[in-house]
């Protein structure tokens, strides 16, 4: 396993960065361009941009905002939300995205993953999975966590990878915004099932949460609130991870 990546996330609603708890009670956090530039300067390995209301509202991703954010970045940039077709994905790549994340549309039409991988390459296709605990395991939910599917997360990620997804963005809805740490049982179950990189999402606020995610098999840890509210900078988190023995990418400029 290579260096563990630290990935800030911009959840965007109507052009502003927002954050809530379990996808509810959203609060405005700031301007996406300004935050993207700040995280780049702090040493973020990648940035994820999710248009969180696009799928629910049945519209395309706000490409004009994506383009503005892309202009200030020189790190990998993943965009999701409202991607329903190959053409949607092409438009986002043209706007400056390096990777495209698909979630609800892929569940509804798994062949979309195969089409995206064939035309864009697996390296540009991220399968985003919103998961919650169920009596029988972990269930896939869609449309911003509002629609249960009855699908098992492990079997779904296996199918997604077989169809060409080159990376997983795995979010625990139970932990999202709670500050309770990543769901390491979820991460470990998925790690056993697939070999592609896994980005852990949902609940990470303390360095030890990211260490636990790494130990459970995650290749990267995604967070929002701790960075938006300046509880910790990306560079601060990387220092703490390195001190705990987690390999991270480092530059002298970050201190």
Automatic annotation (TrEMBL):
One of its GO terms (molecular function) is imidazoleglycerol-phosphate synthase activity. One of its GO terms (cellular component) is cytoplasm. Its main location: cytoplasm. Keywords: Amino-acid biosynthesis, Cytoplasm, Histidine biosynthesis, Lyase. It catalyses: 5-[(5-phospho-1-deoxy-D-ribulos-1-ylimino)methylamino]-1-(5-phospho-beta-D-ribosyl)imidazole-4-carboxamide + L-glutamine = D-erythro-1-(imidazol-4-yl)glycerol 3-phosphate + 5-amino-1-(5-phospho-beta-D-ribosyl)imidazole-4-carboxamide + L-glutamate + H(+). Pathway: Amino-acid biosynthesis; L-histidine biosynthesis; L-histidine from 5-phospho-alpha-D-ribose 1-diphosphate: step 5/9. The keyword Aminoacyl-tRNA synthetase does not apply. It is found in: Cytoplasm. Its EC number is 4.3.2.10. InterPro entries: Aldolase_TIM, His_biosynth, HisF, IGPS_HisA/HisF, RibuloseP-bd_barrel. One of its GO terms (biological process) is L-histidine biosynthetic process. It is an enzyme of class 4 (lyase). Heterodimer of HisH and HisF. IGPS catalyzes the conversion of PRFAR and glutamine to IGP, AICAR and glutamate. The HisF subunit catalyzes the cyclization activity that produces IGP and AICAR from PRFAR using the ammonia provided by the HisH subunit. Belongs to the HisA/HisF family. This is Imidazole glycerol phosphate synthase subunit HisF. It comes from Thermoanaerobaculum aquaticum. The gene is hisF.
């Amino acid at each position: 396993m290579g260096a563990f990546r630290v990935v800030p996330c911009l959840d965007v609603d109507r052009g502003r960065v927002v954050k809530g708890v379990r996808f509810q009670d959203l609060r405005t956090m700031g301007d996406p361009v300004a935050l993207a530039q700040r995280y780049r300067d702090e040493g973020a390995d990648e940035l994820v941009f999710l248009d969180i209301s696009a799928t629910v509202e049945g519209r395309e991703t706000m490409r004009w905002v994506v383009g503005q954010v892309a202009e200030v970045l020189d790190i990998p940039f993943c965009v999701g939300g409202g991607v329903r077709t190959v053409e949607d994905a092409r438009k986002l790549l043209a706007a400056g995205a390096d990777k495209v994340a698909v979630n609800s549309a892929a569940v509804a039409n798994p062949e979309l993953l195969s089409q995206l991988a064939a035309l864009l390459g697996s390296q540009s296709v991220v399968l985003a999975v919103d998961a919650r605990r169920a009596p029988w395991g972990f269930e896939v939910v869609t449309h911003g966590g509002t629609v249960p599917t009855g699908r098992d997360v492990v079997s779904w990620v296996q199918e997604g990878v077989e169809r060409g997804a080159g990376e997983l963005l795995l979010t625990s809805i139970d932990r999202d915004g709670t500050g309770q740490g990543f769901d390491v049982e979820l991460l470990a179950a998925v790690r056993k099932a697939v070999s592609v990189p896994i980005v852990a999402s949902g609940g990470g606020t303390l360095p030890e949460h990211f260490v636990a995610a790494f130990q459970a098999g995650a290749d990267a840890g995604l967070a929002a609130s701790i960075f938006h509210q300046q509880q910790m900078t990306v560079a601060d988190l990387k220092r703490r991870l390195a001190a705990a023995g987690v390999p991270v990418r480092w530059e002298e400029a970050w201190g």
